[in-house]
Amino acid sequence: MAGDILRKRKIAVLGSRSVGKSSLVFKFVEDHFIESYYPTIENTLTKTVSNNGVEYECDIIDTAGQDEYSILNQKHAIGIHGFVLVYSVASHNSFELVKIVHDKIVSFTGNETVPCVIVGSKSDLQRVVTCEEANEYAKSIEASWIETSAKSNVNVGKVFDLVLTEIEKRAPHNQGQPVAKGCLIM
Ligand SMILES: Nc1nc2c(ncn2[C@@H]2O[C@H](COP(=O)(O)OP(=O)(O)OP(=O)(O)O)[C@@H](O)[C@H]2O)c(=O)[nH]1
After folding, report:
1. What's the pLDDT tens digit per position in 10-52?
2. Where are the domains of the chain?
3. Which of 70, 130, 182, 184 is deepest in the core (most CB within 10 A)?
4. Looking at the domain 2-174, which fold is it?
């Protein structure tokens, strides 16, 4: 039975500082919202998620906030099955940063497209990033797009359903091969 198979998937959560990456991951895994801000160094949380009748053991890597000058850590690209790229709907800079991070992943993995969900976080706040521009961008890179609020518990689980769907869309029924498996150019 398909539901008896437990597949491992590694998901990296990337984006600017303070956009709510840790809050999203904590709300999903621990069902708890953190009001205070503690900058993340790196944290991996694990949760079993059911998607289309298949159980996935997901390692969710909550990364430190990036900026345009950050170098993409190879461990956030190699061996990763899917990406959650987070901006805050209240910060246009954080939306622009998502585009930069996406381009870095694409050039790092050497794939034209990667399994990816673009997440507009803090949807309970006053928006400056419109739904239209975010949706249009996501379409242009063949990614899913969703807005969430960890604070108000909106669409939190949906993010991880979408990323698993994006992973399976590109490699249905595969043996769990990530988008980049670890060739290093010396
Ligand atoms: N209003 C609102 N605030 C949020 C939401 N999610 C997170 N926050 C707040 O935003 C701040 C930053 O959240 P974090 O989850 O620590 O952000 P981060 O992206 O992990 O930050 P770094 O570790 O620096 O990368 C905290 O004070 C959170 O309480 C949300 O959905 N709505």
Report:
1. 999 999 999 999 999 999 999 999 888 888 889 999 999 999 8
2. 2-174
3. 70
4. Rossmann fold (3.40.50)
The complex's ipTM works out to: 0.99
* Three-class DSSP category at 184: coil
* Nearest by Cα to 11 from 122, 149, 119: 119
Asked whether 94 lines ligand 1 (CB < 6 A), one says no
Q: Would the CB of 126 count as within 6 Å of ligand 1?
A: no
- Determine phi and psi for 96, rounding to 5 degrees: -65, -35
The pTM of this model reads 0.93
Helix 92-109 × helix 131-140 angle, to 10° = 10
Ligand 1 pocket residue status of 121, Cβ below 6 Å: yes
